[in-house]
TrEMBL record:
The name this protein goes by in its record: Ribose-phosphate pyrophosphokinase
Entries under HAMAP family matching the protein: RibP_PPkinase_B (MF_00583_B)
Family as reported in the entry's similarity comment: Belongs to the ribose-phosphate pyrophosphokinase family. Class I subfamily.
Essential cofactor(s): Mg(2+)
Enzyme superclass (EC): transferase
Binding site for D-ribose 5-phosphate: 200, 224, 228-232
Gene3D superfamilies linked: 3.40.50.2020
SMART domains: Pribosyltran_N
Subunit details: Homohexamer.
Organism name: Ectobacillus funiculus
Amino acid sequence: MPNQYLNSNLKVFSLNSNKVVAEQIAERIGVKLGECSVTRFSDGEIQINIEESIRGCDVFVIQSTSYPVNEHIMELLIMIDALKRASAKTVNIVIPYYGYARQDRKARAREPITAKLVANLLETAGATRVITLDLHAPQLQGFFDIPIDHLMGVPILADYFSKKELKDVVVVSPDHGGVTRARKLADRLKAPIAIIDKRRPRPNVAEIMNIVGHIEGKTAILIDDIIDTAGTITLAANALIENGAAEVYACCTHPVLSGPAIERIQNSKIKELVVTNSILLPEEKKIEKIRELSVGPLLGEAIIRVYEKQSVSTLFD
């Protein structure tokens, strides 16, 4: 384990959303997690105490803004303010999963752009840099006026599937918007791609239309950035099998898995769902079909490079 950062000005703190990833990040860097406590008053107000000096330090705070989203965002905002007032040199926030990312534009009249609002809140609180993973739309980087390092989960997923040595693979995008992501995975697996053309009549409801590309007799790998209620991905898997695919795997970076998701996955044609631990999965969601991969080493390496003022983009060359 590297230990050159043990007595440095690099500090890593974890809030409540994903302490497992935070511990993996700290292990990769070779430091202990910083001492802080997150408590609540009887009316639910959040109180944070930083229990060590961080004056003049480069501080990295690990917090996925996953369920309960608003609680975790508020924890993060209060932590940023506490660090700023305690004279941290820089306040770098590491957000493995960025909540509200799907509210990134006005699709209808009088809708908010909440992803931008959250970015504004983080900046106003005092964040000096953001490190995040697989934003729902890469354009969200432009919502920030501070540096943002946008990491990719595809290499982690690709490495897993490469080691499985699957035969006759086709990478499938569940919609037109995910084609670029599917292409990145396909390039790493040296496989062709296919696209599922679907129509979404209302939120969280998807209707499969047809499949563009050759999938008959092939091992299909569906890829998405987020799987929420799992309606799209399970319907897509069923459609692939009905149209002649030999077997179907699925993968995503962010396993939101809300509502009926686990039941749908369990009853679907998906042989295995591969996810990362950008969102902490409770034990009841860790079914046999789900395989979890760690993003801790990737995020830890990114933090080291930011601290050492090295290139982060070369991580993916």
